[in-house]
Amino acid sequence: MTVRVLVAKVGLDGHDRGIKVVARILRDAGMEVVYTGLFQTPESVAVAAIQEDVDVVGLSMLSGAHMTLAPLVVEALRQRDSSIPVVVGGIVPSNDVADLKAAGVAAVFGPGASDEEIVGAITSLVSPAE
Amino acid sequence: MESERAYDRWRRDYDAAKLRRPSFATMSGIEVDPVYGPPDGEFPGVYPYTRGIHASMYRTRLWTMRMFAGFGTAVDTNRRFREIIAAGGTGLSTAFDMPTLLGLDSDDPMSLGEVGRCGVAIDSIDDVRDLFRDIDLSAITTSMTINSPAAIMLALFVAQAEEAGVARARLGGTLQNDILKEYQAQKEFVFPPRQSMRLVRDTIAFTAAEMPKWNSVSVSGYHIREAGSTAAEELAFTLANGFAYLELAREAGLSVDEVAPRLSFFFNAHIDFFEEIAKYRAARRIWATWLRNHYRAADERSWQLRFHTQTAGVSLTAQQPENNLARTAIEALAGVLGGTQSLHTNSMDEALALPSEKAARLALRTQQIIAHETNVANVADPLGGSWYVEALTDEMERQAESLFAELMDMGDGSMLEGCIRGIEQNWFQHHIAESAYQLERAFNRGERIIVGVNDFLDGNEAEDLELLRITNEDERKQITRLATVRQRRDDDAVRRARERLATEAADPEVNLMPALIDAARAEVTVGEMMATMAGVFGRYVEVPVL
């Protein structure tokens, strides 16, 4: 089964270099990738993820707002009874990683994460139940 | 003049220039010439300026060490500004927070988590009053890094300065105001491209008529490069955007010579040392050639490309962050050997957070070491004549010309039209995304080594840097400030100012600056002015390309 991933930019952060590169890496790894463009809200991401029936949501965050916005995306999904895992990539200081995980984020990829690391983590998030 | 030899022209200007020191020598006492090369070759300060725009370059004045600052509320940033001035700074450079850059008020739901985080929050003239409190705006220059709401920020600045008794004609500074690169790379756009260009036109025309000391656009390649372009793409797209603004101003009835001297440029200094130097040299030569031959500028100042440089944020690593000091030093040196007019050096912690005070100081010290210890500023264009650097300079120019030809084709002979259609057709965005992807591929295949990231990993565990932490406290403070303004202002005046703005926005022949200044005085907020214009202009939604 093909893994489906929604990659998203939430809030006002316009840095889209990383998300575009990661989207292509995931495609190269055989996944289907949906990108909804800039300036999304936690709600619009949750709605799109459910509509598109994706297996994983990937957020790209480089402005420092991850502690505010990433938990809101998890919450918006849970409010809609969805258990789709949320992963975060971008500039996240290591002290914030534990707090993000406590808020329900499944994995965090810092700057310099390798292709294998990202693809591997997403694959294992999707497959353990099977 | 035409027939005067480059050497004679250079000699005359050099001899007339004031110098920082009576003589320049190496550390061991060898006297050095101001520039080296064959007598029939190119010289700095002489067309086509490959070797620099001034005859005496840094012998007269070192580059400006312009460090960019802004955080929290206007009161916080004002305190920082006054420290800079007390330390001898004569230029301020304002960083705005993300909501302000997108023209949103601090109490907008979309602003949540971003207020005061990456820069200062400005909602109304009230914040501008606090931002420049006790600062004499006629005695310093102010750079404002803002694009989509640039016209609004200029209006707020003019209104506040006049309230403080400084006439607009006496205000000196720079507005980034480079909207084209927002669609191409930085992505902080609000209105559709053509409507945004009308605002740029209005600011260019307004400053040309009323603010003789103001630089209307800082044409910025920095963000294009950070978004992933190659050096040649950065060079070509930036200069093409510069040509587009000239054509825009010409459409508004201004001559090239009225506008070109007020455009400045802003380039990246990435880690490939010689390629960067070649890029700056090619930039000057291309600009001079096009301005003289294609745009028929007669004023020499129109031919001279002035630029600011910032070291590459994207080259910095979160791993072993102290290594970033070395990267930044090498990049800064490239900017200086390339003849930059001003320089911002990044702090070593910028892959992790906004700079701490200590990291920002080290970044400035890096420039001071280059300026005062290395003697590299003694000789203009010291790499000119290197077979390698000259060949790279020619290659940069060749690649840029080939991209210009594509843009001219796309625009049916107009660079302005070519740049706008290039955005609408995702041509720029595709180029940049493809180059970013290719770089990533090379990194992932191990062909490109990044120290501490895919090799030389010892020491990656330690992370003991003191980072600047920004809390949500500033966001709460700013929202309270804004609520006070909304409560006390004259609602009728606000309504009238917004109606005038809407009416005038609907007529593309009208210059919107007077209506915006009027709105600024009535304490209309940035978010309200943007919303009023968006009601007429619409909002731009990018169709993302992967």
Helix content of chain B: 40-55%
- What is the CATH superfamily of chain A? Cobalamin-binding domain
Low-pLDDT sequence parts of chain B: none
Q: How are the strands of the biggest sheet of chain B laid out side by side?
A: 1-9-8-7-6
The percent range for strand residues of chain B is: 5-15%
Task: Tell me the radius of gyration of chain B.
Answer: 23 Å
Intertermini distance of chain B: 52 Å
* Number of H- or I-type helical stretches of chain A: 5
Structure, explained:
The complex is a heterodimer of chains A (130) and B (546). With 130 residues, chain A is an alpha/beta fold. Chain A has a single domain, classed as Rossmann fold, CATH 3.40.50.280. Helix content of chain A is 44%, strand content 18%. Chain A has a 5-stranded parallel sheet with strand order 2-1-3-4-5, with helices on both faces. In chain A, helix 2 packs across helix 3. With 546 residues, chain B is of the alpha/beta class. In chain B, strands 1-9-8-7-6 form a 5-stranded parallel sheet. In chain B, helix 9 runs parallel beside helix 11. The interface between A and B is large, with 34 and 45 residues.
Please specify the SSE layout and strand pairing.
The complex is a heterodimer of chains A (130) and B (546).
Chain A: E1 4-8, H1 17-28, E2 32-35, H2 42-51, E3 56-61, H3 66-79, E4 86-90, H4 94-102, E5 107-109, H5 115-126
Parallel strand pairs in A: 1-2, 1-3, 3-4, 4-5
Chain B: H1 6-16, E1 64-65, H2 74-86, E2 91-95, H3 98-101, H4 125-131, E3 141-145, H5 150-163, E4 172-175, H6 180-186, H7 193-210, E5 214-215, E6 217-220, H8 222-226, H9 231-251, H10 256-259, E7 263-269, H11 273-294, H12 300-303, E8 307-311, H13 323-337, E9 342-344, H14 357-372, H15 387-410, H16 415-424, H17 427-444, H18 473-488, H19 491-505, H20 513-521, H21 526-537
Parallel strand pairs in B: 1-9, 2-3, 3-4, 4-5, 6-7, 7-8, 8-9
